[in-house]
Amino acid sequence: MIASRKLVIALTLSFVGASGIPTTTAAQGAKLQPADTIIINGNVHTINHKQAWAHAVAIRGEKIVAVGDNAEIEKLRGPGTKLIDAGGKLVLPGFVDCHIHFLEGSISLGQANLEGSKNPGDIQRILRAYAEKHPGDGWILGAGWNYAMFGEENLPNKKYLDELFSERPVFLVGYDGHTSWANSKALALAGINKDTPDPPNGAIVRDPKTGEATGALKESASSLVGNLVPKLARAEKIAALRAGMRWANENGLTRVHSAGGDFEEFDLYDELRREGDLTLRMYIAYFLDPPELRPKDLAAIEEARKKYSGDWLSAGVVKMMIDGVVESHTAAMLEPYTDDPSTKGKLFWDAGKYKSAVAELDKRGLQLFTHAIGDYAVRTALDAYENAEKVNHTKDRRPRIEHIETVSSVDIPRFGKLGVIASMQPLHAYPDEDTLRVWAGNNGPDRASRAWVWNSIAKAGGHLAFGSDWNVVTLNPWEGLQMAVTRQTTEDKPEGGWLPQERITLAQAVEGYTLGAAYAGRREKTEGSIEPGKLADLVIVSQNIFDIDPHEIAKTKVIKTIVGGRVVYQAGAK
Ligand SMILES: [Zn+2]
User: Fold this and answer.
1) Cα 466 from Cα 95, distance rounded (Å)
2) Is residue 38 classed as helix, strand or coil in its secondary structure?
3) Please, which residues have CB within 8 angstroms of residue 393's CB and are 6 or more apart in sequence?
4) 259 C-alpha to center of ligand 1: Å?
5) Could you give the CA distance from residue 237 to residue 468 in angstroms, rounded to a whole number?
């Protein structure tokens, strides 16, 4: 598979091979000055179409200076050069998570993890163990429960929590972050009773007979309890971020695009950067709330853009959320929900105000991330982006739509046509009971036939960018890759994959986490592939994912993660 023979560029005389053509790609000025680090004996998949495979890489400072075969790269080895022998393992560009809530995820590492629970009994077991490890009367916090485990109702109930905790407040966020679950103690602390009105864009779920709150809190109603959770001190947040970065690096991530919850904490990230302790590159969006774009939003966005523009930490992107999620009927649809024809969901923004906010932000050269899950929300975002390009006469702005869980067939080709990036999270399509029964049931068969249409968007010329939405699901991109190519659960269900026509190739999926992700963050000139001149962000992994049964991809382990030429994760090291 190694095809480093017919190469591009390289201009440095020293690399001209016997045939007279250069055999190694090297950046200008690489010369024979020794490298700081060389990686040899690798199976290097570069994602550089001009030199798809190589054996070795040379790094100087933060950048890659040459990519080629072992002998060529060995020439750059000096007395002070650090040697990494990849032992024949697969080397890939560092992975990017294009949609993450990093601080929140980092904090969740210290809370009860409910992911993978199948029923309320599982949850109770996890919480009991958690409470034993964290005794006292403090809050019990956790995340990761799913809707399907509650049977018909598809919503949690405080009774399961009250059975265990009558005096300790419990607050558990659902796996998608859109619905929360509180016990009676937490509801009482929040002063929620029969007469408490629903907040805008939220609902306190109530027992139809008694009118009492059931403990399920949808969308903004979550904050009624969530706001009471004691805030972490600065040092605690920094500690959480360090743990989060370690976890991200361990999974092979070298950059993340934050889609909310981190902008307010720029200062913490900057402190880590100044101390040389950032091991993950951060692109952080300002979260713009409805009802409209205000001067104070613009001031905050512009100030951050000026202050943070480096390779490690940057702003200049705005996230807007125009609808909710399918499971709680808050995603905005063109037609009524199949299981509840009384509602189509609704936009969180007035469509006109959203459109003018998009146009103003686009005019300033800012990038846009719009959360849109229902087909009406997706269309609204495409319309607003199309309008912005027209009124501003702008090109190549790469606005993004985040999630796109279902989409009208007439809108699929618009991604490619308008240059709108489809930022999707493969594990959101995980075809378990929650997806196949609740999600698909709410949508009905027609809409559900256009669930997470990765392949259709790509075939019509659209760019894909992949991520996790951590801590909605794990940030492990290897599980995401397996999902993208199989559309099956880890038990290989359903047979042949759910909507198999929407599977993509492994090469496409890897690109969605690397070069495609860099493109989606406007950084493809400096990141996303292993080529001279680009930042030395790469991973060495345990198995050649291109050479195995796709159902084994999720088992991939990262051996080393390198960011900016520095080894930030090493398997087995403490
Ligand atoms: Zn998100």
Assistant:
1) 10
2) strand
3) none
4) 6
5) 21
Q: What angle do CA 230, 236, 239 make, to 5 degrees?
A: 145
Residues 476/466, Cβ–Cβ less than 8 Å: no
**Residues in the chain, total:** 574
Q: Phi/psi zone of residue 86: left (φ > 0), alpha (ψ -120 to 50 degrees), beta?
A: alpha
Burial of 98 (0-12, 13-18, 19+ CB in 10 A): buried
E strands present in 46-167: 53-54, 56-60, 63-68, 82-85, 90-93, 95-100, 112-113, 140-145
Cα of 338 from ligand 1 centre, angstroms? 25
pLDDT per residue, tens digit, the chain (574 aa), is 333 333 333 333 333 333 333 445 555 444 579 999 999 999 999 999 999 999 999 999 999 999 999 999 999 999 999 999 999 999 999 999 999 999 999 999 999 999 889 999 999 999 999 999 999 999 999 998 988 899 888 899 999 999 999 999 999 999 888 899 999 999 999 999 999 999 988 999 999 999 999 999 999 999 999 999 999 999 999 999 999 999 999 999 999 999 999 999 999 999 999 999 999 999 999 999 999 999 999 999 999 999 999 999 999 999 999 999 999 899 999 999 999 999 999 999 999 999 999 999 999 999 999 999 999 999 999 999 999 999 999 989 999 999 999 999 999 999 999 999 999 999 999 999 889 999 999 999 999 999 999 999 999 999 999 999 998 889 999 999 999 999 999 999 999 999 999 999 999 999 999 999 999 999 999 999 999 999 999 999 999 999 999 999 999 999 999 999 999 999 998 6
Task: Tell me, in angstroms, the distance from the centre of ligand 1 to residue 119's CA.
Answer: 25
Question: Rounded to the nearest whole angstrom, what is the distance from the C-alpha of residue 416 to the centroid of ligand 1?
Answer: 23
DSSP E strands, 195-337: 202-206, 213-219, 253-258, 281-288, 313-321
Residue holding tokens 């040379």?
58
| 344 C-alpha to ligand 1 centroid (Å) | 21
Contacts of 146 (CB under 8 A, 6+ apart): 117, 174, 175, 432, 434
User: 260 alpha carbon to ligand 1 midpoint, in Å?
Assistant: 7
Taken in order 114, 118, 120, 122, the sign of the CA dihedral is: negative
CA of 464 to the centre of ligand 1 (A): 16
* Residue whose entry in the numeric block shows the structure tokens 């950048």: 63
